[in-house]
Amino acid sequence: MTEKKIVIVDDDDCIRKTFFMILHDHYRVFLAKDPKEALSKFKKAEIDLIIADLKLPYINGLEMISRFRESGYKGEAILISAYPDLVTPEELVRLSIGHFFVKPLDLKALNQSIDHLLNGKNHQNKPMKGQTSCLME
């Protein structure tokens, strides 16, 4: 089975590194600091999951996912935000965003969501590394 590929898009370096530490043992993890970098590097790549923050430089996470979808991306997407009022359920459905998480993140639930989206199962006991405070504040 091929290793699943995840792109993390967040302008916070601590959050990007924490996601990498948590996920790299089970997935190939790529990091982008903003939508421009993500779109230029990964728009044509075979990616299985995009995890994006809502508030990003240049364009927001919803617009970035929309641009990925317009370019033919059919993979999974997770949106995270400290501002849940800025996202409507209709937008999530329209862009086929599988899950939406509000910061501070519940890392166990996030890990289960990733497993469910990529593998169709829940790993209740999968070990998680790197539970640093920048994701859980």
Describe what this molecule looks like in 3D:
- The protein has 137 residues and is an alpha/beta fold.
- It is built from 6 helices and 5 strands; from the N terminus they run E-H-E-H-E-H-E-H-E-H-H.
- It has a 5-stranded parallel β-sheet, with helices on both faces.
- The longest helix is centred in the C-terminal third of the chain and has 13 residues.
- About 8% of the residues have low confidence.
> What is the C-level CATH assignment?
Alpha Beta
Total helical elements: 6
CATH architecture: 3-Layer(aba) Sandwich
Percent of residues in beta strands: 15-25%
The CATH homologous superfamily is termed Response regulator
Q: Report how far apart the termini are.
A: 36 Å
Q: Note the run of SSEs as H and E.
A: EHEHEHEHEHH
Could you say which overall geometry the principal axes of the C-alpha atoms support? globular
Percent of residues in helices: 25-40%
* Subunit arrangement of the protein: single chain
Number of strands: 5
- Overall average residue pLDDT: 88
CATH fold naming = Rossmann fold
Largest sheet: 5 strands, parallel
Helices and strands: which structural class?
alpha/beta
How many domains, as an integer? 1
Radius of gyration: 14 Å
Contiguous low-pLDDT stretches (5 residues minimum) are 123-133
